[in-house]
Design a protein that fits this description.
This is Concanavalin A-like lectin/glucanase superfamily protein. The protein is of the alpha+beta class and about 300 residues long. The protein is built from five helices and 13 strands. The protein is globular.
Length: about 300
């Protein structure tokens, strides 16, 4: 009897130790915040209007909207989990309510791996559209983020990123506003306030962000958490307030121009050869600290 009692007490003790160890393993230490955030989903959460994780499918997760057209799109390892690989491809969507009307301020964030395709003497160089909110029957959407991949040869890792906004004027005409990073400004340009940034991210994963601020008319570009846009091109409209005003209806497109989707492109307007991941759109202008935090969190898989 005494032996059985000792055995029973030993089993109870071992079970208790195993339970405590199990709880300790499950709970685990929490990771420290980055920029005050625990997850990329926390950055600007109240103003996030669209999010494409691109983990095995093209669904926009906030509205549960699937692409209406998927061309040349497969899914493989991306910057965070899976991403979409576009081989002469794109994803086009029906109108999404949260994106279907004007956002006076906007931030677009995404990861992309894109290679130059042109250079001096090339007859095949062309830009690579990454994301846009389209205008019907027009190549340029209301807001666009793309790479001028036709400017350099595929062996050159300098990548020119471009943000382009098309604002609807009161008379219905279109007001084009753009911003780029400038790889090699001239000495005269530098003397006039231009700042160069080569953005040496061609052919590898990089995090890109474009922001538009209505109150100042400022248009900024970031790569891997740092501003890369040429300040000489950032202030649009003379620095006066310049809110966006969309042509509607507008629909999101990943990887090409609306003219391609509609079937009437010019020769230089083609589907993308690129990998894209983690697309987010906010109806606000994220500040530099939040953009860097977003980059670090997504890079860490958080």
């Amino acid at each position: 009897m005494k032996t059985n009692k000792i055995l029973l007490n030993s089993m109870i003790l071992l079970s208790s130790v195993a339970f405590v160890a199990s709880c300790s393993d499950d709970d685990g230490p929490s990771l420290p915040p980055i920029g005050g955030y625990d997850s990329a989903n926390d950055v600007g959460a109240a103003d996030l209007v669209a999010y494409w994780p691109l983990n095995g499918n093209g669904k926009e997760s906030l509205s549960n909207t699937n692409p209406s057209s998927s061309v040349g799109a497969t899914y493989e390892a991306g910057a965070k989990g899976q991403g979409v690989k576009l081989a002469n491809g794109y994803l086009a969507y029906p109108q999404i309510t949260a994106l279907g009307s004007t956002m006076q301020n906007v931030t677009i964030s995404l990861w992309a791996k894109v290679t130059n395709n042109g250079g001096p003497g090339s007859t095949t160089g062309r830009p690579t559209m990454l994301f846009n909110l389209d205008r019907q029957n027009e190549w340029a959407g209301n807001i666009n983020l793309f790479a001028e991949t036709g400017w350099y040869a595929s062996t050159n890792d300098t990548l020119v990123l471009k943000g382009l906004a098309v604002i609807k004027n009161l008379d219905g005409s279109a007001n084009f506003q753009d911003v780029i990073n400038s790889p090699k400004p001239s000495a005269a340009d530098i003397a006039n306030g231009h700042v160069g940034n080569a953005n040496k991210n061609g052919a590898k994963w990089a995090h890109y962000v474009a922001t538009w601020e209505a109150s100042t008319g400022k248009f900024l570009l970031y790569a891997n958490g740092q501003k890369i846009s040429n300040p000489a091109f950032e202030v649009r409209g003379g620095g006066n307030p310049l809110p966006l005003n969309f042509f509607t209806p507008t629909k999101p497109i990943i990887g090409t121009f609306q003219t391609v989707v509609a079937g009437n492109p010019d020769a230089w307007q083609t589907p993308a050869e690129a990998n894209i991941d983690e697309i987010r759109v906010w109806k606000k202008t994220l500040n530099a600290a939040d953009i860097n935090a977003l980059y670090e969190l997504e890079k860490a898989g958080r």
